[in-house]
Design goal:
There is one protein chain. By secondary structure, the chain is of the alpha/beta class. The chain has helices at 13-25, 43-48, 65-72, 98-112, 149-167; strands spanning 2-7, 32-37, 51-57, 84-91, 115-116, 133-135. The longest helix is centred in the last third of the chain and has 19 residues, at 149-167. Bound molecules: flavin mononucleotide.
Length: 168
Protein backbone atom coordinates (compact mmCIF):
# COMPACT_ATOMS: atom_id res chain seq x y z
CA UNK A 1 0.00 0.00 0.00
CA UNK A 2 1.60 3.20 -1.22
CA UNK A 3 1.43 6.36 0.89
CA UNK A 4 2.73 9.82 -0.04
CA UNK A 5 3.94 12.64 2.19
CA UNK A 6 4.09 15.88 0.21
CA UNK A 7 5.51 19.11 1.60
CA UNK A 8 6.87 22.57 0.95
CA UNK A 9 10.01 23.53 2.85
CA UNK A 10 12.52 26.34 2.50
CA UNK A 11 14.86 25.72 5.44
CA UNK A 12 14.38 21.99 5.99
CA UNK A 13 12.14 21.75 9.06
CA UNK A 14 9.01 20.64 7.23
CA UNK A 15 11.08 18.28 5.10
CA UNK A 16 12.42 16.72 8.30
CA UNK A 17 8.90 16.35 9.69
CA UNK A 18 7.80 14.68 6.43
CA UNK A 19 10.64 12.18 6.70
CA UNK A 20 9.65 11.30 10.27
CA UNK A 21 6.03 10.75 9.19
CA UNK A 22 7.14 8.45 6.37
CA UNK A 23 9.48 6.60 8.76
CA UNK A 24 6.52 5.96 11.06
CA UNK A 25 4.32 4.89 8.14
CA UNK A 26 6.93 2.42 6.95
CA UNK A 27 6.85 0.69 10.35
CA UNK A 28 3.32 -0.47 9.52
CA UNK A 29 3.23 -3.86 7.79
CA UNK A 30 2.57 -3.52 4.07
CA UNK A 31 3.11 0.23 3.90
CA UNK A 32 5.42 1.79 1.31
CA UNK A 33 5.73 5.50 2.11
CA UNK A 34 7.71 8.11 0.20
CA UNK A 35 8.20 11.84 0.66
CA UNK A 36 8.10 14.47 -2.07
CA UNK A 37 8.78 18.18 -2.16
CA UNK A 38 6.12 19.92 -4.24
CA UNK A 39 8.80 20.73 -6.80
CA UNK A 40 9.54 17.04 -7.46
CA UNK A 41 6.39 14.98 -6.95
CA UNK A 42 6.37 11.50 -8.48
CA UNK A 43 2.87 11.82 -9.89
CA UNK A 44 2.49 8.12 -10.74
CA UNK A 45 3.38 7.13 -7.16
CA UNK A 46 0.91 9.66 -5.75
CA UNK A 47 -1.86 8.47 -8.07
CA UNK A 48 -1.26 4.92 -6.81
CA UNK A 49 -1.17 6.03 -3.14
CA UNK A 50 -4.12 5.21 -0.86
CA UNK A 51 -3.26 8.01 1.54
CA UNK A 52 -1.62 11.41 1.14
CA UNK A 53 -0.36 13.69 3.91
CA UNK A 54 0.49 17.29 3.05
CA UNK A 55 2.62 19.67 5.12
CA UNK A 56 3.74 23.29 5.17
CA UNK A 57 5.62 25.79 7.28
CA UNK A 58 3.46 28.48 8.84
CA UNK A 59 3.86 31.69 6.87
CA UNK A 60 1.91 34.38 8.71
CA UNK A 61 -0.29 31.53 10.01
CA UNK A 62 -1.04 30.37 6.45
CA UNK A 63 0.35 27.58 4.28
CA UNK A 64 3.03 28.83 1.90
CA UNK A 65 1.73 30.46 -1.28
CA UNK A 66 3.69 27.86 -3.25
CA UNK A 67 1.88 24.97 -1.52
CA UNK A 68 -1.48 26.68 -1.95
CA UNK A 69 -0.80 27.16 -5.66
CA UNK A 70 0.22 23.49 -5.89
CA UNK A 71 -2.99 22.40 -4.15
CA UNK A 72 -5.13 24.51 -6.47
CA UNK A 73 -3.28 23.36 -9.56
CA UNK A 74 -1.19 20.19 -9.70
CA UNK A 75 -2.99 18.41 -6.84
CA UNK A 76 -6.26 18.57 -8.75
CA UNK A 77 -4.79 16.23 -11.39
CA UNK A 78 -3.61 13.50 -9.00
CA UNK A 79 -6.83 11.55 -8.44
CA UNK A 80 -6.81 12.35 -4.73
CA UNK A 81 -10.60 12.13 -4.22
CA UNK A 82 -11.63 9.22 -2.00
CA UNK A 83 -8.17 8.76 -0.52
CA UNK A 84 -7.19 9.23 3.11
CA UNK A 85 -5.78 12.75 3.67
CA UNK A 86 -3.84 14.37 6.45
CA UNK A 87 -1.97 17.57 7.21
CA UNK A 88 1.00 18.73 9.26
CA UNK A 89 2.93 21.93 9.86
CA UNK A 90 6.02 23.44 11.36
CA UNK A 91 6.20 26.88 12.93
CA UNK A 92 8.74 29.01 14.73
CA UNK A 93 6.60 30.04 17.67
CA UNK A 94 4.23 28.20 19.98
CA UNK A 95 1.27 30.30 18.83
CA UNK A 96 2.55 30.73 15.29
CA UNK A 97 -0.51 29.41 13.49
CA UNK A 98 0.52 25.80 12.78
CA UNK A 99 -2.94 24.45 13.64
CA UNK A 100 -4.49 26.97 11.25
CA UNK A 101 -2.14 25.79 8.53
CA UNK A 102 -3.14 22.15 9.10
CA UNK A 103 -6.81 23.14 9.16
CA UNK A 104 -6.55 24.93 5.82
CA UNK A 105 -4.72 21.95 4.27
CA UNK A 106 -7.48 19.63 5.51
CA UNK A 107 -10.18 21.95 4.10
CA UNK A 108 -8.46 21.89 0.69
CA UNK A 109 -8.33 18.10 0.91
CA UNK A 110 -12.03 17.92 1.86
CA UNK A 111 -12.95 20.03 -1.14
CA UNK A 112 -10.95 17.73 -3.40
CA UNK A 113 -12.98 14.85 -1.93
CA UNK A 114 -10.46 13.24 0.39
CA UNK A 115 -11.34 11.47 3.64
CA UNK A 116 -9.52 13.55 6.22
CA UNK A 117 -7.85 12.11 9.30
CA UNK A 118 -6.41 14.00 12.28
CA UNK A 119 -4.41 11.22 13.85
CA UNK A 120 -7.08 10.53 16.43
CA UNK A 121 -7.27 12.66 19.57
CA UNK A 122 -9.27 9.89 21.22
CA UNK A 123 -6.23 7.62 21.13
CA UNK A 124 -4.84 9.68 24.00
CA UNK A 125 -1.38 11.00 24.72
CA UNK A 126 0.28 12.50 22.89
CA UNK A 127 -2.96 14.15 21.73
CA UNK A 128 -2.94 15.08 18.06
CA UNK A 129 -5.75 17.52 17.43
CA UNK A 130 -6.00 18.43 13.74
CA UNK A 131 -2.56 17.09 12.77
CA UNK A 132 0.98 17.19 14.14
CA UNK A 133 2.74 20.55 14.48
CA UNK A 134 6.39 21.10 15.40
CA UNK A 135 7.69 24.30 16.96
CA UNK A 136 11.29 24.94 15.98
CA UNK A 137 11.98 28.07 18.02
CA UNK A 138 15.30 28.00 19.84
CA UNK A 139 14.07 30.82 22.07
CA UNK A 140 11.78 28.57 24.09
CA UNK A 141 13.59 25.85 26.00
CA UNK A 142 10.88 23.19 25.57
CA UNK A 143 10.77 23.53 21.78
CA UNK A 144 13.06 22.54 18.92
CA UNK A 145 12.52 20.13 16.02
CA UNK A 146 14.36 17.27 17.74
CA UNK A 147 11.63 17.09 20.41
CA UNK A 148 8.99 16.24 17.80
CA UNK A 149 10.41 13.13 16.14
CA UNK A 150 8.35 10.68 18.21
CA UNK A 151 5.15 12.68 17.62
CA UNK A 152 5.55 12.71 13.85
CA UNK A 153 6.48 9.04 13.73
CA UNK A 154 3.45 8.16 15.86
CA UNK A 155 1.24 10.17 13.51
CA UNK A 156 2.73 8.30 10.56
CA UNK A 157 1.98 4.95 12.21
CA UNK A 158 -1.60 5.97 13.05
CA UNK A 159 -2.19 7.29 9.53
CA UNK A 160 -0.81 4.19 7.82
CA UNK A 161 -2.75 1.96 10.22
CA UNK A 162 -5.99 3.77 9.37
CA UNK A 163 -5.24 3.61 5.63
CA UNK A 164 -4.59 -0.13 5.91
CA UNK A 165 -7.85 -0.58 7.82
CA UNK A 166 -9.77 1.28 5.11
CA UNK A 167 -7.96 0.17 1.96
CA UNK A 168 -5.46 -2.54 2.84
C1 LIG B 1 7.81 34.50 5.23
C2 LIG B 1 7.81 33.72 6.53
C3 LIG B 1 6.71 33.81 7.37
C4 LIG B 1 6.69 33.09 8.57
N1 LIG B 1 5.60 33.20 9.40
C5 LIG B 1 5.56 32.50 10.55
C6 LIG B 1 4.41 32.56 11.40
O1 LIG B 1 3.40 33.22 11.13
N2 LIG B 1 4.43 31.86 12.56
C7 LIG B 1 5.52 31.12 12.93
O2 LIG B 1 5.48 30.51 14.00
N3 LIG B 1 6.61 30.99 12.13
C8 LIG B 1 6.64 31.67 10.95
N4 LIG B 1 7.72 31.53 10.11
C9 LIG B 1 8.75 30.56 10.46
C10 LIG B 1 8.53 29.21 9.76
O3 LIG B 1 7.18 28.80 9.78
C11 LIG B 1 9.32 28.10 10.47
O4 LIG B 1 10.66 28.47 10.64
C12 LIG B 1 9.19 26.80 9.69
O5 LIG B 1 9.62 25.72 10.50
C13 LIG B 1 10.05 26.82 8.43
O6 LIG B 1 9.88 25.62 7.75
P1 LIG B 1 10.93 25.08 6.69
O7 LIG B 1 12.25 24.94 7.42
O8 LIG B 1 10.37 23.79 6.26
O9 LIG B 1 11.00 26.09 5.59
C14 LIG B 1 7.77 32.26 8.92
C15 LIG B 1 8.87 32.16 8.05
C16 LIG B 1 8.88 32.87 6.88
C17 LIG B 1 10.07 32.74 5.94
Amino acid sequence: MKLSVIYDSRTGNTEQAAEWIAEGMNQVHGAEARTFAIQSVDEDFVRESRGIVIGSPSYCALMTPELHAWMLGSAMKLNMAGKLGGGFATEQYTHGGGDLVVQSILVNELVIGMLCYSGGGEYGEPYIHVGPVAVNSNKEAHNGMEHYKDLFMLYGRRFAGKAAELFG
